[in-house]
Amino acid sequence: MNEITIISVISLGSIGLVAAVILFLVASRFKVLEDPRIDVVADLLPGANCGGCGLAGCRAFAEAIVKAESLSGLNCPPGGNDTMQKIATALGLEATEAEPMIAVLRCNGSRQNSPPKVNYDGAMTCAFVHSLFSGEGGCPQGCLGCGDCVVACTFDAMYMDQITGLPVISNEKCVACGACVKACPRYIIEMRKKGKKDRRIYVSCINREKGGIARKNCSAACIGCGKCVKECQFDAIALENNLAYIDFNKCTLCRKCVPVCPTEAITELNFPARKAKAETNQA
Amino acid sequence: MRTFSIGGIHPPENKLSEKAPIEVLPLPQTVVIPVSQNLGAPATPIVAKGDQVKAGQLIAKCTAFISANIHSSVSGKVIKIDDMPDSAGYLRKAIVIQVEGDEWLEGIDTSPSIIKECSLSPKEIIDKVIEMGLVGMGGATFPLGVKLLPQQGKKIEVLLINGVECEPYLTADHRLMVERPEEILIGISILMKATGVAKAMIGIENNKPDAIKILSQAAQGFQGITVHPLQVKYPQGGEKQLIEALINRRVPSGKLPMEVGALVNNVGTAYAVYEAVQKNKPLVERVVTITGKNLKKPSNFMVRIGTSLSALIEAAGGLPTDTGKLVNGGPMMGKALTSVDVPITKGCSGILVFPTSESSRKPVVNCIRCARCTAGCCMGLEPYLLAVLAEKKRFEDCESHKIMDCIECGSCAYICPSGRPLLDLIRVGKAETGKMIRKRSAN
How many CB atoms lie within 10 A of CB B7? Predict the structure, then answer.
């Protein structure tokens, strides 16, 4: 009995020893040399693998930074400037400030503004509905309300509003990774500057049809009248193909374009109420 | 009696209008002719606002290889060329013509007399078919000229003519076979001449005994054309299913019928070929079935292309009060309409008017793994799996499970006891997988 134990321990032990030596030799012979800084950078990143930087994931982003030896053109939207600053300090590089961005829904075709004309009861996926027809409200460019963007969001930053039938983007949770932008078959969601105090002004319509046709399907459609273009003193609004577009780099958030819009297609977000502002001015 | 072997379903036939003879619909006041009525590129308009046109005049010319000419279906004045809503609610370019009288272009024979002899060479016939804007009339609207062009290294042995009309409700092809057998047979012999084929087989499901009888009798006067009754089973009118039913050959995955030496055309197409080649008449009218259980007068109309759907409904006794859904095409593969103000196009074989009680889908519940969709799939696919893969955006897996073989017949969604939208999801998957494959082959 004792003998068997000794033999097994010796034989197994020697097999293990030989294998360890082989493994050690192979490992040192085929060692993959990797820049240790990649691990440092990867640890600083959020690790969400959202793809918002345009690369395959956080590891790929770290590799790209180390390879490029510079941070220009590389930005981690969920991490924001804090993360980029930390990476810059760790690598001894100069950080480039990127303006924080956020997703905005450029459609206000809610059930009230664009009442359903037909009843759709097929598969609830925007990709399919878009290939099938113009949508329940009739606008061929408006939100279909099936929530492909909500499914695509990995940060839980979106939900469908059951009353309006439109997706709502959370100001706090959205990290501007751009997954929803790609998921929308109608390209309604746009990445815009988050703005000072989260204040944003944008035309919430992408319908390029002539005014009358657009208005037929949706009371909040941009009809391309050009009033906002005339009102804007900063040359921030352009009118093309019956649709106004506010350039967020030129817009000073003065809000003058909002009241002149006859269809209330221009949306202002997170501004104090207008009346309250007038009162404070008086006081 | 023959049929195809894999899958298939038996929906209620409901051929309400099979005894209604083809009536000519009165000319409308205006017609809206979309410049894209076929698979492939849209045609380019060659008329301007204010121009006077005659019926049969070319108004939009094809510019791409896979495209078809568009002719005016009426005589009158072009009142606008603008974006008009199509049956899906999207805006598409269309030519609007105000009807003034009914004057045909010179050289077009509109008399009912039958011309049997055709002296044109195969090349001339194909040129004529392209010039007259002919497309496949079975529903896919693939330009016919492209289909007839000889392919290098491939020889067509037999021409198969689809008189199956397996979609429930529709009777347009049925009535055409009963009322215009001579014209169809002459059309078939012209197609045989154009493709250099000595043998043609007409497949007709045996729920149309009158059509089988009439065509068999008439076919005795034509060399090489035979009529074959087939068992009733949906989707026998599918190209690959008809080939298997008639000549017992299977088209390999991803290949065209040419691979097994067959060419399939619809009886409606054969009729259009007769009109184009013998009578010089472009594709400006077609037979459309309008039917429905509550409709006053389910009928078959000869309709000018571009006529508004509302005119057709009016002629069939008006829209019943409890209408819940309008479908363009058959109940299995047709598309629901969003409005009645849409024009009839080259590919429109029928309009169905469903009462409210029949217009909604079943509520969707979980898949119970009964595999009835797999048993019903005429291409031998696994629809439940393809639907899940498409939903999860796993398009590589969709490709390896042969999603591109799906002919979108809708048998899986029809037969599913859980009411799952299988075909909807498979269509998404097919579109995305197709995009992926094209992108890959472009690189």
Answer: 22
